[in-house]
Amino acid sequence: MIAYRSLRVALLGGGSVGAQVARSLLEDRDELAHRVGASLDLIGIAVRDVDAKRSVDLPRELLTTDAERLILGADVVIELMGGIEPARTYILQALNSGADVVTGNKALLATHGPELFAAAEQVGAQLYYEAAVGGAIPIIRPLRESLAGDRVKRILGIVNGTTNYILDRMDTQGDSLEDALATAQELGLAEANPSADVDGYDAAQKAAILASLAFHTEVSVDDVHREGITAVTAAQIASAAHSGHVVKLLAICERLIDPDTGVEGVSVRVYPAMVPRSHPLAAVHGANNAVFVEAESAGALMFYGAGAGGVETSSAVLGDLVSLARRHVVGGPGLTESKHAGLPVLEIGKATTRYAVTLDVIDEPGVLATIAGVFAEHGVSVETVEQSVATAAPGGESTAILVIGTHGAREAALAATVADLAANRVVARVASVLRVEGA
What we know:
Blueprint: E1 5-12, H1 16-27, H2 29-36, E2 38-46, E3 63-64, H3 67-72, E4 76-79, H4 87-96, E5 100-103, H5 106-123, E6 127-128, H6 140-146, E7 152-158, H7 161-172, H8 177-186, H9 195-198, H10 201-215, E8 225-226, H11 234-242, E9 245-257, E10 264-276, E11 288-295, E12 299-306, H12 310-330, E13 352-362, H13 367-377, E14 382-387, E15 391-392, E16 398-406, E17 409-410, H14 411-423, E18 427-436
Parallel strand pairs: 1-2, 1-4, 2-3, 4-5, 5-6, 8-10, 10-18
Antiparallel strand pairs: 7-9, 7-11, 9-10, 11-12, 13-16, 13-17, 13-18, 14-16, 15-16
Protein name: Homoserine dehydrogenase
EC number: 1.1.1.3
Keywords: Amino-acid biosynthesis, Methionine biosynthesis, NADP, Oxidoreductase, Sodium, Threonine biosynthesis
């Protein structure tokens, strides 16, 4: 048996992911030692309640409520507690004590990332966070290392499994949003309070992390335009299917030239959008995640897989652990975060996109010309128009349904067009507005 040096590993959090990481460290200890060139010794697991029921039967002697004691005795700290505090304090304490850190805490990184990375750089420590975006999908390391010499132009991502499951059920099973959400909750894919998922907060945090890495620019979650899926209806899903599209909640990060100043910036936004069924993201079903990256030299790349789950996400955590543990063996400084570009984050109104607008209009001569005039007034080009047969409302005017698809235009111009349509006499109702991405 080869004699290896020992690295002391402290684990903060014994939930679904933490328990699986602990299991692997204990059961695969010899194999991991061979891969690293050092023994990874789990010295303790900090939990809120040592008596709580867990998905894995963990040795009781490893469980403790004294996180600070564990941190001060560790070479590597794995933070899987979630939330902002006390996770932020513990990670800073670990870094300042000289320990390297692995975390999957997307909320913390999206709000306090610069502070944590600065602390790591100051002491030459490593901060790895593959599990923060996409669960088991390797996306952080490709952006941080593999594509570091390339120029990433755009990222389209399905980064929240709960919303993808809900929208997929609505598309494939004909469920309403409420029924699909209820099923997701029954399966444990959605929390009792699903706001973080369905309102887009989770996806926005991940978008901030991806944009910061891809564009070498500091992007916080407050910079991300966010819309959730709570307003998506079965009628919108059916209309999208009719036109050869599927609705997905997308995280979009892209380089843009500010149309007003000519200066390059970045746009970071999260919203439900129609995606052509021919696009690879349209084939992402269930609770899976996928990130579609467009780079100048590498071209189009797609990373796909399980976006959550204790066993699956533990793979990303352990991958980070092995990588940073190898540095302990060979020596040298840790990876630093590059924010040299310092690009401005542009408001959503400066992004270019396309709309699919569904209108209930009064059935009278000249309506199409009036509608077309509103689009033209704002410089928005109409690509497609589909009109239904007029129907008479009891005691009222007959109306028809117009579904209008636009060419690409500035978001501000498209939004102003919809606002003017809503106020126009010939428009009884703006029934639906969805963006179109990936075409």
